[in-house]
Amino acid sequence: MPQEHRLILRYVDTPGYTPDLECYLRHGGYAVLRRALALRPVTQPDGKTLSPQEQLRQEVMVSGLRGRGGAGFSTGLKWSLVDRKSGKPIYLICNADESEPGTFKDKQILYKDPHQLLEGMILACFANDVHLAFIYIRGEFVEGARLLNRALAEARAAGFLGRNILGSGYDLEIHVHRGAGAYICGEETGLIESLEGKRPYPRIKPPYYPAVLGLYQCPTIVNNVETLCAVKHVIAMGGAAYAKLGTPNNTGTRIVCLSGRVRRPGYYEIEVGKVTLRELIFDPAFGGGLPEGRQLKAVIPGGVSAKVFRAGEKVRLKTRGPDGREVEQEKDVLDLPYDFTTLVTAGSMSGSGAIIVLDDATDLVEALANISEFFAHESCGQCTPCREGSLWMAKALHRLCRGGGRPEDADYLLHIANNIPGGRTICAFGDACAWPVQSFVEKFRDEFVARGRQGRSPASGEPPPAGARPAGAASPVTHP
Amino acid sequence: MSTVPSPAPNSSPTPALGWTPPPRPTGAAAPAIPAPPAVDTLTVTVNGRPVTVPRLTPDWQGKPAPTTMLQACAAAGVSVPHYCYHHRLPVAGNCRMCLVEYGTPALGPDRQPLKNPDGSLVIQKSPRPAIACATPVTPGMAIDTDTPGVRAMREGVLEFLLINHPLDCPICDQAGECKLQEYSVEYGRAASRFVETKVHKPKQVDLGPRIMLDDERCILCTRCIRFTRDLVGDDALGIVHRGSYSTLAAYPGRAFDNNYTLNTVDLCPVGALTSKDFRFRMRVWFLKETKSLCTSCGTGCNVLIGSRENVLYRYTPRENDAVNRSWLCDFGRLNYKWIGRADRLRQVRVRGEPATWTRALAELAERLRAIPAGHAAILASARLANEELFLLRKLAQHLGAETDIVPRHGEGDRFLVHPDKNPNTTGARVLGLAAAPPGANLPRFAERLRAGQLTALLVFGEDPLKHGFDPETLQRAELLVVSDLLPNGAAELAHFVLPGCAHAEKRGTFTNAHGRVQRFFKALEPPGDARPETEWLGELWERLTGERASTSPERLFRQLAEEVPAFRGLTWAALGDTGQDLPDGPPPPER
Asked: How far is B572 from chain A (nearest CA, A)?
């Protein structure tokens, strides 16, 4: 039976658990930090001496931990790329700008267990010789920022932060910076620009890789909230033990945000790759299936920027059998294990861990129009394809929804979407705004063509309009 | 304007940016060429052709930076279209027009590059394109700029740029020098698929005293922002709103009015930023372009004069690494209108009566012969060319006349503007026409005039009444000769008025405040009787001495280089478009 494996969310939601230091300490808080700060250099069999920091970094490398923000990049590798010879300070930024539609996992941590984040963050900072770190929190998390600042004050008063932490001689200061409400600030270089007080225009890479030229042109690590919490558990358990959770190359646990047409929407912490999409949607331990009488139509497996899966869609996957031989299998998308690699192989991604379930009553043209409207509003406007393409697609879908469709609009949308992604833009936002359009139109082409012909949703069952529809009527899409 | 890296300042045979051309595959053994200075180079292929480039190339600030794909393509003679990239600005990488496909050498299990049977490297193509403007080249890299994929990306970018563009070329001032037009013709689609309503943005935005902005035409390349922020140091421009509604704007409540705003008009690849002075006055394709110099200060910025049918319409900066790079200050750029003024001196006058040059010069020569040595003085101008000053120097030596110039000082800045407001003070000083310090002789001239010791005063390009002489003093002169461009008080009193030419109406050289000798050429015909000073000064010399004198600036410059040690070794031809420094540099400043 698939079930949750709560590591990060172990105590939250237990009765009486509060986001203050006293409660966190009662639950064993900051013990890992104490242990880490007391580490001594060890000499390896080959004669090399590892400093405490190197030991911690090695644990994270061994754990196979992958970033939980969306790209799934190896955390150990990210840390190893940091330029430690530049003589410049190294900064660490916690990316708490959780804004991918459908995602609400970091919020749980920030609101219910901020000290866990702080402990993970202090560990990560110590491991990377960071003395100044920032938490970039999205502007909408007003209460979250307040809780974090309170937690920082508590930690400072208790000697977990500031000068000479717990008598170890290690200094660290952490500041909370509130964003002003822009999705693009979740992109790490956009976030850095914003933190520097500029417009959050993502930087070009090369040359501005954060590990070398990040915040104030210094080496910088940007990690997601959940990732930093996972770091705490990696250090607590040991990298090798953590790597036993989940599946190879997809280790540990992650928090999945389930939303849309399921009976039990919410957040579930699972071992990565140990639970399938079907189980997440239908198992009583998770989503518990769709509401009575509803059929599954589509699943967005990793936040709205991930490519959609059609219910019943089959993908061919190469997997290694128990005997180590490679076998090619055809699988229903719902039977895919929810992990990083498989979903990418299947043509989508697990992204930020947000699963959005769409049922047969959902008008996919309207749904896509809604998604595109979001991206058109959030495009920073720096580079051409995304700036112009995102609004173009949103306008076309808006027109399609309002009865101005043409049969060729499906191809028209694909044409626009195909000119945006795949390295044509500075950051991944270009992919993010094009992938939903590409996948919705390719996988539900009939609906788009039909809507183009009819001007009205076939699912709504209403007759085609007799006259022109009043502008803006019953449309979810409005433009500034 | 040119956005391709310019040749080295001295136009030496070294190719642009100092890279060496690839060896030509010749059958015969190559002649022994001395090894070039050790520059760390690497070889890449551009569209299949190998090209060797230095590993490091100066960036926009002149600091060595890894050579980029765009620079390697330029070295290979392949132009990559671009909007936001400009070799004198920090790289932005936002227009995505320069996207190219590329590959790097594939490595075998032993980490050594794999080779094809023919010995060439096996190239592993990158799944993603890269922007040529910001991506450094690596050894063996294969860059492709002309594949179906690259063409499709350019077409895609152009289509995106045009969907919200007003497509108003017929009434747009940029037409004819618009990169959006040019690339659309070269790389774009014939028709747009766009059927939605366009985004509307502010038009006729009064950005500052000299700049008009049409936000609908703006392609948001941010060249103007980067120039103003990173080169001028004025954070006046920025983008407001986001996504497709992004709009270029000046800081609220502030005018965009620094002294370099008009450079943004040159930088703007489209018709968004236009010069209030030039807009709607002339279609650019009608303009004749003449290489010239700005005369507003001692910097001597290189300009192109845009003129048509004897009317000067604009100055635009002409690239010169050693002087003004690609820029021009607003004051200098707009300080051309006096050339076309209706009240220019256009008549030769002898004692107030119109005369011919022949009669006037004959009579003047006769009068000058009658002046005893030491009784004449020449008030020259540091606005005259080296060649003219050279003739005046000869004249002064012949007459035993004292000379001086009128110094002009003002405010300078750290960018281009020099505190010396004369274009040729250095020339006047090294040719010995300026007193030390310049202007020191002027009170003496006035004194000697009043004392009757000075009987002849020859004034060129200046109004003595504005520089310490009063009319009574001037009237004491038995012979007062005034040559100028515009009417002045002294000309009213002069016995001889000889109309001269503006620099745009003649050829010559100026020596800037840093000792760089630069040429300028003729764009316009002078008004009325006015003739280039070298012509009539040469004629006067001949009448005075019986010696034939050269009147062409080229010959005069040769003589000057032979006779004046400060100019030794310089030749008219070798000055080229960007000039050459005086061999010993400028003379030290005098205070």
From this structure: 45
